[in-house]
Amino acid sequence: MVNEGILPRAALRQVEARLTEAGCPDADFDAAELFRLAVGADARLATAPLTAAQAAQLEALTARRADREPLQYLCGSWPFLDFELAVGPGVLCPRADTEVVAEAAAELLQGVPHPKVLDLCAGTGCLGLGVQRFCPAAEVTSLEKSPAAFAYLTRNARLPNGLHLTPVQGDLFTYWETLPEGELDLIVSNPPYLTAAEMGQLQPEVAQEPAMALAAGEDGLVFYRALAEHYQRALRPGGALALEIGWQQREAVTALLAANGWVDITCRKDYGGNDRCILARRSYP
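User: That's the sequence. What structure does it adopt?
Assistant: Structure tokens below.
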């Protein structure tokens, strides 16, 4: 129990020990973040004993994290590239792996002066905004089905650094029907891609993220099938597609795209050396 009057470093040690006992990975980092949230200072620099309000806040945050609530949800925002996004229960937490997808996708827009970009299954909007961070001229539309996630997408639609997107609530499985042919330069997506078996083996933190943003049927490919079959016509000839994938899905997703006439199919790895991003283009004239 974090009590009034405890010194900052003692409080930090106590919180870290409790998180370690609860099985939280990176307990030292999490403890420092919880202290910063509760006290508004870095525990390494703070010297004043905690007030009653600070101790109560730190205790409440520690209890929630020990129950394996994601740290991102407790913070209420999380960095992606060099900007912050609103995040919380009901939306998938931004991840560093998706930064690789954003960078790879933006590279496909080289030489396109005012690209039109569609981000499907957008969640917080991190992928579409990430593309715009690398390509400021990009006009980004971001689609999200979940009402809870759409609320965060709307909050992130215009950021203090000037990044912005147009949020649209809709379903990837039918949205393609509304798109005119040949108007987009890039489609990006980090769709749900976990198999039924993987959904039964989630880490405790991931299990508190929305299943709607994770589950993709028995084989984890239902969203990729829809993307491969229905979205090529919305791109201009030679227009690009960038998809985040699970680390074991390179061959399956590549085969789906090839079977549906996509060309120039390649794969990028994430920072851990795992297959993470499939790139492709609509066939050329």
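The chain has a mean pLDDT of 97.
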